[in-house]
Amino acid sequence: MKNNPSGISGFYRSDENVQHTVRTAVELNENIDPAALRKAVDIAIKRYDYYSVKFVREEGELLHSVLPNDKQIVITEGITPVLLLSEQSNEHALAVNYEGSTVYFDIVHSITDETGILEFIKTTLYYYITEKYKKSFPADGIRTLDDPVTEEERKDPYLDIEPAKEEAPKHNPQAVEPAVQWEEILPGCPVCKTARRMSVPEDEFMEYVKANGGTPAIVMSNLLAKTVFDLCEKLNHPFRTILMKNYRDAVKAPKAHNNVLGNIVLNYTEQMRNMPMDKLCGVTRQMMDHQSSQEYMLNAVKNRLQKEQKILALGDYDAVHEAFQKSSQMNKVFVDLTVSYVHIQRLGALEPYIKSIFTYVDPAASHVLFEVNAVGGNFCITFLQEFAGNALSDGFAEQLRQVGIQATADDEEPLVCPNLKM
């Protein structure tokens, strides 16, 4: 999209099989009041007018432009999402659903990432709860209409970054080995997109994290790797987890709303199979620290922008779209499992009203996604797979049980994600 480099690839990688969108499900303690929700969304979008947009491609133009959209955000009863960027959504990249006590926030991933949309969600919840209960609450940690929108929020940080001048160095050979063939270690699992929710007590998990010198994302990644070790008698090449990394600080734009994500690659070899957790955390933390330096992340951004510029130089819309499609398919060759962890949400006076926050993203780009939020004393984990079966989620829960942490999981369900109109 013109004037939005940080979102370009996600939009043009979308097709009928892979939709780069995000659905965030927030469960409250009582059934949703539609009138209060309508009022809250209308107020919140005034604060976040940069989410009130539509995508337009003029005849003869190579790319879409992101333009203001003054139509009302669509709110629909029921779990079925509306088609984003279409008449169903008033051409918006954002829409809202509700059913029972749950509100679903859908957005095109090109516009923002989970860190960005959670700010809008928190503001909406603040005005919703204020309206529903006719009470005033302190807004600590929540942006309200009293908090002016800064230029830093609006500006795409990638606009000031020059693409790399030279071809990026080749990846470590370990990182381009073929991905784990899930059908070989999870036999009998039918091909279909599924989701499963799991809750893990925050205090118990964080105590275990601190005791082993890790971080929440690293420990979850390590437990998932141990799950794979248990499922697979021998790894013939490294198993990888890809940790989604927030690059906002690296590009000196901590308040940017855009999709500003990168990757941390953790490689697990057969030699790491029986490592105790504290040693495994030490090894994987070294990998993470190396890839978390500002220089490393800026180089990653520059290299990505260079690749995208080469695609855009093709000069034809269909050719550009096809090239991004091929790029996305290549990613699946070596991605084994992706972990996306935002951070613990502290909602202050609102916390008694909010039970959980779960995130849903199409796993087709990486086979398996492990989405993590934390609110109200629990880590809210969503397992997202391109196949049915609970082997991975049950194995992860068993790893937790062995260290004294009891997870609770819902039944597996068909994955429901919003689609977008290309």
Question: Keywords for this structure?
Answer:
single chain; 422 residues; alpha+beta; Chloramphenicol Acetyltransferase; 2 domains; eight-stranded mixed sheet; five-stranded mixed sheet; 11 helices; 15 strands; globular
Shape: globular
Distance between the termini: 12 Å
State the CATH superfamily name of the largest domain.
Answer: Nonribosomal peptide synthetase, condensation domain
Secondary structure tally, helices = 11
**Which residues sit in consecutive blocks of at least 5 with pLDDT less than 50?**
none
CATH architect. name of the largest domain: 2-Layer Sandwich
CATH topology description of the largest domain:
Chloramphenicol Acetyltransferase
What is the mean predicted local confidence, pLDDT?
A: 91
Count of the domains: 2
Main beta sheet, described? Answer: 8 strands, mixed
Number of strands: 15
- Would you state the CATH class of the largest domain? Alpha Beta
| Class by SSE composition | alpha+beta
Share of residues in helices = 25-40%
Please characterize this protein's 3D structure.
With 422 residues, the chain is α+β, with helices and mostly antiparallel strands. The protein folds into two domains: 5-160, Chloramphenicol Acetyltransferase, CATH 3.30.559; 173-414, 2-Layer Sandwich (Chloramphenicol Acetyltransferase). The protein is 33% helix and 23% strand. It has eleven helices and 15 strands. The protein has helices at 8-13, 34-47, 114-133, 151-154, 182-185, 202-211, 216-231, 277-291, 294-312, 317-334, 391-402, and strands spanning 21-28, 53-56, 65-68, 75-77, 94-99, 102-108, 191-201, 239-246, 261-268, 337-344, 354-361, 368-375, 378-387, 408-409, 413-414. The strands form three sheets. Strands 7, 8, 9, 10, 12, 13, 14 and 15 form an eight-stranded mixed beta sheet that branches. The longest helix has 20 residues, at 114-133. It is globular, with a radius of gyration of 21 Å. The mean pLDDT is 91.
